[in-house]
Design a protein that fits this description.
Length: about 425
């Protein structure tokens, strides 16, 4: 296979440092050389892509994906969809994410036990296009917690596996691992609009969390947790949960604990669904919706405060989260980049650092993806424009001039799959 030489690009390497002029040579599936400056470099044996000053950066990393969510308006849609349709929908979502510039997705829960895992394996075998994927379990929750859709005389599965007590937790975690997941997901706190477990409540008991983490870690798997309440964040840190999502209502003590743990813990806000839901509810202009608006507004305000504090304290934050609802469909995940700038006040460079180098930690691939660096895997985006002055560029697929994953070109603007030939994904089939 010939090399690819991307010449004359503005290279953002993922570290957050200012971009620099240079050339990048890709050999096989790896970045063979990153050459600073404008001097010409040897082109022999390479297909040359003239970037003409365009912005070259690592592929985006979705830190909290749910690629088996089907853009549902009602969670009951997940209860009635057939396994066959659901598998195909998940496959299509994987492609959408890649075509939106996300070359990796760390899953934070699959709607059914094996959906993420089978799609991950198909992508890895290069039988379908999609991002690198860490597969997750469904959301393991407690009776009456977030994800328990059952009623007294009706068993309903939407996205949760309902367990109570240490024994059930352990056997469910082991079952998910047997079926091929990389990440175990726990719902430690409740959520907005839950009648008996609101976002300030911490409903999964400490021994249940401890047993889940011990079991997952014993098998070399990671644990992610849904934690909105301050106590749920503390419970997660104490029990060494690897990825603690949301943290909306974290207090000073919870932030101190996260700061202390910042070398090993990761957080991710999933702010997009809150913003879009608030916009939708307000636009409905219906007084009956005011209690829901108030509840979401509190969540939004707390979420923004918490993440401003986290940035000051150097707590690592991944971009993305909870795309796959009707208000924020799959493939619009890059809206999160704008949210980080507009709602948290992060700089564009800080935001892209979160979406690349920090995201690589969520993938457990910090030494091989998330940077434009010699020896790293060739997951690269070429952007028509400067996202450091306009972070919304990623929302326009025609600006994604090249999407490369694992050294293969997947798309070339307008979300179009690259034509067969050369180093395209199609040609590699
Ligand atoms: Zn989620």
């Amino acid at each position: 296979m010939t090399d690819i030489l991307i010449r004359n690009a503005m290279i953002f390497d993922g570290s957050g440092d200012a971009p620099f002029r240079g050339h990048v040579r890709v050999s096989g599936n790896r970045i063979a050389a990153v050459m600073r400056g404008t001097d010409e470099v040897p082109q022999e044996g390479a297909q040359v892509i003239d970037a003409d000053g365009a912005f070259l950066m690592p592929g985006l990393i979705e830190g909290h994906g749910h690629i088996s969510f089907i853009d549902q308006a009602d969670l009951m849609d997940l209860a009635v969809i057939g396994v066959e349709e659901h598998t195909l929908a998940t496959m299509h979502n994987a492609r959408k994410l890649l075509e939106a510039g996300f070359t990796s997705v760390n899953s934070a829960a699959s709607a059914k036990v094996r959906l993420d895992a089978v799609i991950r394996d198909e992508i890895e075998a290069r039988r379908i296009p999609g991002p690198r994927l860490r597969a997750a379990s469904p959301e393991i929750t407690v009776t009456s917690g977030l994800g328990d859709a059952n009623r007294m005389h009706v068993k309903l599965h939407t996205f949760g596996l309902v367990v109570d007590g240490v024994d059930e937790v352990v056997s469910t975690v082991r079952m998910c691992i047997r079926e091929g997941v990389d990440n175990i997901k726990l719902n430690i706190s409740g959520d907005v609009f839950m009648p008996n477990a609101d976002s300030f409540s911490t409903v999964m008991a400490d021994p249940e969390v401890r047993a889940a983490v011990e079991t997952a870690h014993a098998h070399g798997k990671r644990v992610a947790a849904h934690c909105r309440a301050a106590d749920s964040v503390k419970r997660a840190v104490r029990n060494r949960v690897d990825m603690i999502y949301h943290c909306d209502h974290a207090d000073e003590e919870a932030l101190d604990m996260l700061e202390e743990a910042r070398d090993w813990v990761l957080t991710g806000p999933a702010i997009g669904v809150i913003i879009k839901s608030l916009e939708m509810l307000k636009a409905a202009d219906d007084p009956a919706l005011q209690p829901q608006i108030d509840e979401l507004q509190t969540l939004y305000d707390d979420n923004c405060w918490t993440h401003g504090e986290m940035m000051k304290r150097g707590i690592p934050i991944v971009v993305g989260g909870d795309y796959g609802f009707s208000v924020n469909p799959q493939g619009t995940n890059a809206n999160d980049l704008e949210h980080f700038v507009k709602h948290y006040g992060f700089s564009e460079a800080q935001t892209l650092h979160c979406a690349t180098m920090i995201g690589a930690r969520a993938m457990d691939m910090a030494d091989s993806i998330g940077q434009v660096r010699e020896g790293f895997l060739a997951d690269l985006l070429l952007i028509d424009g400067d996202p450091l002055s306009d972070i919304t560029l990623f929302q326009d697929k025609s600006k994604l001039t090249m999407i490369m994953k694992d050294g293969l070109i997947h798309a070339t603007g307008n979300g179009q799959t690259a034509e067969a030939g050369g180093r395209s994904w199609l040609a590699a089939q």
